[in-house]
Amino acid sequence: MLTDLLGIPPQVLFGQLMLGLINGAFYAVLSLGLAVIFGLLNIVNFAHGAFYMLGAFATIFITQYLGIGYWGALIVAPLVVGAFGAVIEYFLLRRLTGVDHLYGLLLTFGLALVIEGTFVKMFGASGVPYPVPEQLAGGVNLGFMFLPWYRAWVVVASVAICIATWLLFERTKIGAYLRAGTENPKLLQAFGVNVPLLTTLAYGYGVALAAFAGVLVAPITQVSPLMGSNLIIVVFAVVVIGGMGSIMGAVVTGLAMGVIEGLTRVFWPEASATVIFMVMAIVLVLRPAGLFGKTA
């Protein structure tokens, strides 16, 4: 077998591949939200990690204080956080229409610091745990590793939401309106389409995707106010590799980078924390628009 030739136990190789796929699922959903916001609104949303964190904390609030279970939180938390994002777009980001993109980045960066600082003050930097839902407890022995049912669910749910998002923006009339609004909003407005409303809904949807990823990750890791800031730089690198604004690029690259990161832990553990940035540098040199991005 290949693993025998490489001198690596198959449990280690396939186990890291599976873990890489799970991490890639989170990268895909988070980078998808960033791609939607940048591709349709031309906003570099640096607050994306904070919204991801809000989704995880919203899950705890909803289940503990409202008596809604995990499955209800999987729907309610993204809706609540997405609505919060829509309010931010309406009252803050809309004021920056037509100005340099740097102002939007600075505003969202400052917003992220405010949200994270508020939650650190309330809950501390260490965060709080969230249990795995009873229906998804346990796992299955694959021979080369023990796969928890919840981690398998994360991959399935992430792929499903990515496919649904791609279909929404590429195969529906709403998606066509949104794409047209980025090209010529005044002309689309002349045909009676409420472009500002579409913009607000698009930003809210991108934020809801980040919150959805936060709900999925809550039972896997410690829910901490800093969990988003620790991940957002990697997600930005994934978006750049796939192509800024490319929905397909975000999904494919997110999953691929997770697998590559997992393989690097096997063959070159010291580089596992930087391999994504190494790939980003190579892609930017060879194809500045990204693997799936449109060249000018």
Detailed description of the structure:
The protein has 296 residues and is mainly alpha-helical. It has one domain (2-130, 192-286). It is built from twelve helices and two strands; from the N terminus they run H-H-H-H-H-E-E-H-H-H-H-H-H-H. The protein has helices spanning 2-6, 10-41, 48-65, 70-91, 101-123, 149-171, 173-183, 185-190, 195-217, 229-242, 247-267, 275-286, and strands at 139-141, 146-148. The chain has a two-stranded antiparallel sheet. Strand 1 and strand 2 form a beta hairpin. The mean pLDDT is 88.
Which features does this protein show?
296 residues, mainly alpha, two-stranded antiparallel ribbon, 71% helix, globular
Please render the helix and strand layout as text.
Elements lengths: L1 H5 L3 H32 L6 H18 L4 H22 L9 H23 L15 E3 L4 E3 H23 L1 H11 L1 H6 L4 H23 L11 H14 L4 H21 L7 H12 L10
Antiparallel strand pairs: 1-2
Strand content: under 5%
Order of helical and strand elements: HHHHHEEHHHHHHH
Give Rg in angstroms.
20 Å
Strand order of the largest sheet: 1-2
The pLDDT mean sits at 88
Short description:
With 296 residues, the protein is mostly helical. The protein is built from twelve helices and two strands, in the order αααααββααααααα.
